[in-house]
Design goal:
Number of strands: 22
CATH class of the largest domain: Alpha Beta
Number of domains: 2
CATH architecture of the largest domain: 3-Layer(aba) Sandwich
Oligomer: single chain
CATH superfamily of the largest domain: CoaB-like
Strand order of the largest sheet: 13-12-9-14-17-18-20-21
Largest sheet: 8 strands, mixed
Bound molecules: cytidine-5'-monophosphate
Distance between the termini: 37 Å
Radius of gyration: 25 Å
Number of helices: 14
Structural class: alpha/beta
Helix content: 25-40%
CATH topology of the largest domain: Rossmann fold
């Protein structure tokens, strides 16, 4: 497997054809390679596979309707078309090819295809006579000229009983073509360096004991992976966590806040800093050289705490300040107003704020796979819907890309 595939994301458009059943296997193969898949199911596609099977395999809602308020709230169709690293159409029908070649956008799939700023890979599937018809030939030629990539169709017996080119490429062939086009992709953040902190810090009391918190590091790791996926040269400074390191980032493992700050400063200059670590604000003023013992009837030992450096504030005010500094605010109350105050106090450009109070059902975002956040900037705040930490990472990276493209910073 290409290491570059892990952590990437694909928008899969499933057109209406008998080959749509193979798209389910394609999703499974992509997910097994840690590729995030969002799917648009066309109306005709929905006649061959159910939205439920697609949603169950992708692990995300299926987008079906251009005018669906629910879909637009989940993610607007323009953003949907751009949030992925690659758009894959499988099966690509004569209808979808013709619409894109002619610039027609009259449903969600054709609109997303016109609106995307990403490469499009099509896996055509249709009756051999249709494939060979002058009109589909024209569409294929126009699309190829416009830079659309193709995999297949293959020769073989077709569901309709005829023989010839028109069978959709096999899922493994499509995966190989996806790998190839992702590897060839430059990435919107190419040439930029990103620095990400993640996980807790551990502040030692003695050789075996420490003060720490419940941070899992999942959100920070997902952000590092998404930044690297967008082409940024990414360094992840991580406290002790149990997550497999992303393959295409430079991982620096640290234990204490002071080590984390030193590792970050050594990596400057950088263009983007995303400080998602749950850094311990305090540390014991001294570390005992041997384990602190229970000592008969004596009083319990007193622990004096001293303040740790604030890494986010230090980078925000550093002479080599990254152009975009993003902090996190894990709050249990007044989430947005506390985050607004934190943004100016620490000198960050943006704050991602979330509510970390334990829900009624006992769930907590700390350690969980989902997150509901607010993006707080100089101009206001926006609430993002509850979504997976991977989706939060991709959406944040999308905002970072827009910010750099608009050259506002
Ligand atoms: O703990 P607090 O709510 O102040 O954390 C807000 C932000 O500041 C987070 O982005 C966190 O990574 C960062 N932080 C830091 N160094 C600290 C404390 C917090 O970088 N010592």
């Amino acid at each position: 497997m290409e290491p570059g595939m892990r952590g990437k994301s694909v928008l899969l458009i499933i057109g209406g054809g008998i080959a749509a059943y193979k798209s389910l296997e394609l999703i499974r193969l992509l997910r097994a390679r840690e590729v995030t898949v969002r799917a648009i199911l066309t109306k005709a596609g929905g006649e061959f596979v159910t939205p439920l099977s697609v949603a169950a395999l992708t692990g995300t809602p299926v987008y079906q309707d251009l005018f669906s308020l629910t879909d637009e709230v989940q993610m607007g169709h323009i953003e949907l078309s751009r949030a992925a690293d690659l758009v894959v159409v499988a099966p690509a029908t004569a209808d979808l090819m013709g619409k894109l070649a002619a610039g027609i956008a009259n449903d969600l799939a054709s609109t997303a295809l016109l609106a995307t700023d990403k490469k499009i890979l099509m896996a055509p599937a249709m009756n051999v006579r249709m494939w060979e018809s002058p009109s589909v030939r024209r569409s294929a030629e126009t699309l190829a000229k416009d830079g659309v990539l193709f995999v297949g169709p293959n020769d073989g017996e077709m569901a309709c009983g005829e023989f010839g080119p028109g069978r959709m490429a096999e899922p493994l062939e499509i995966v190989a073509a996806i790998e190839k086009s992702l590897a060839a992709r430059g990435g919107a953040l190419k040439g930029l360096k990103a620095l990400v902190t993640a996980g807790p810090t551990q502040e030692p009391l003695d050789p075996v004991r420490f003060l720490a918190n419940r941070s899992s590091g999942k959100q920070g790791y997902a952000i590092a992976r998404a930044l690297a996926g967008a082409g940024a040269d990414t360094v992840l400074v991580s406290g002790p966590v149990e997550i497999a390191p992303p393959s295409d980032v430079k991982l620096l493992k640290v234990t204490t806040a002071r080590e984390m700050l030193a590792a970050c400063e050594a990596e400057l200059p950088a263009d983007i800093a995303v400080m998602s670590a749950a850094v311990a604000d305090w540390r014991p003023d001294r570390m005992a050289n041997s384990t602190i013992k229970k000592d008969g009837e004596k009083k319990s030992p007193a622990i004096t705490l001293v303040e740790n450096p604030d890494i986010l504030a230090a980078l925000s005010r550093h002479k080599n300040r990254p152009r975009l500094v993003i902090g996190f605010a894990a709050e249990t109350d007044n989430v947005v107003s506390n985050a607004v105050a934190k943004r100016s106090r620490k000198g960050a450009d943006w704050i991602i704020a979330n509510d970390v109070s334990t829900k009624e059902n006992g769930e907590s975002v700390m350690g969980g796979d989902r997150n509901q956040v607010h993006l707080v900037t100089a101009t206001g705040s926006e609430r993002w819907p509850d979504m997976s930490k991977t989706d939060v990472a991709h959406r944040l990276v999308q905002h970072i890309i827009q910010q750099f493209q608009s050259e506002k910073i």
